[in-house]
Amino acid sequence: MESSPTRQTVVTSDGHQPADHGTARLGVVCGIAAYGLWGAFPIYFKAVKSVPALEVLAHRIVWSLAFLLLLVLARHRWANLVGAVRCRRTLLTLATTTLLIAGNWLVFIWAVAHDYVLEASLGYFINPLVSILLGFVFLRERLRPWQTFSVFLAVAGVAYLAIAAAGLPWIALCLAFSFGFYGLLRKTARVSSLEGLTVETGLLTPVAVAFMVYGAVSGQAAFAAGTTRITFLLLVSGVLTAIPLLLFTIAARRLRLATMGFLQYLAPTGHFLLAVAVYGEPFTRVHVLTFTFIWLALAIYSVDTLRSVPAQPSAPG
């Protein structure tokens, strides 16, 4: 993409030159798509809730790897994948992100199957705050005054919901912190989104395959032994898992961590609406107030961010 000769060079607070407008726009589109798909995930996991969470996780891992390897071959990226595996620092980072994303997947699958969709949504409402904190601590990202005010509004809404729930929301905290650290590490890893995801699922696959074989031998597996519908749903789990994660990592490398954090609100909003409107979980005045605080915070942050973007020069003639 050609750059405009009149565009100013700006360095962000983390010391890196930001992406141009076209790259940032791609990041926003990919981020919205990723979080929108994640917002609809409870529909899928409700459909397979009769299958144990560990078995669903195993199938997500194995079929995700198969799908990603096809993408690597189709895009002629095999050499890049080998290079990522050979780099000790990159491999160590991806080994850590592998554990984080596997834990995140497992907790979310269990939560949806056991009717804790609202608490799962709370976790992903908290996650942007965790992302902003990590960006401040590790990447030296800073927020402008109105953005800071929006963060405090979001904190107030989430804290009120957590206090009103009369107990520490362990599911929410596990989801928020596991995915917050995952986003931070994947942003700093020197590997492209496709190769990184392939390595992550590849590291998990031996354990997942062993679990699937054990289930089949012991007669406890739902795959193939259950209904055709369940078998099909487990087969497509790879595509459903890999696509939003791929979109997320594309966006994470093009946007500030704080921006990614606020885009995250799209996913828990989907979870929240599904929990209340479709699955019949209680919708109280506490939830109304929390929802209002969070979306007001998002509106303030978004408006302030749009106002801060410099206007692009018009194209000649």
Nearest-integer average pLDDT: 81
Number of structural domains: 1
Radius of gyration: 20 Å
Low-confidence stretches: 1-18, 311-317
The termini sit apart by 20 Å
What is the makeup of the main sheet? none
Share of residues in helices: over 70%
SSE sequence, one letter per element: HHHHHHHHHHHHHH
Number of helices: 14
Label the structural class: mainly alpha
How large a portion of the residues is in β-strands, by DSSP E? under 5%
Shape call? globular
What's the count of strands?
0
Blueprint (SSEs and pairs):
Elements: H1 21-39, H2 41-47, H3 53-74, H4 78-86, H5 88-113, H6 117-138, H7 145-164, H8 170-188, H9 193-218, H10 228-235, H11 237-252, H12 257-263, H13 266-278, H14 285-308
Helix pairs in contact: 1-11, 1-13, 3-5, 3-9, 3-11, 4-9, 5-8, 5-9, 6-7, 6-8, 6-12, 6-13, 7-14
Features:
317 residues, mainly alpha, 14 helices, disordered C terminus
Written overview of the protein:
The structure is a single chain. This protein is an all-alpha fold and 317 residues long. It has one domain. The protein contains 14 helices and no strands. Helix 1 (21-39) runs antiparallel to helix 11 (237-252), helix 3 (53-74) crosses helix 11 (237-252) and helix 5 (88-113) packs antiparallel against helix 8 (170-188). The model is unreliable at 1-18 and 311-317 (pLDDT under 50).
Briefly characterize the structure:
The chain is 75% helix and 0% strand. It has 317 residues and is mainly alpha-helical.
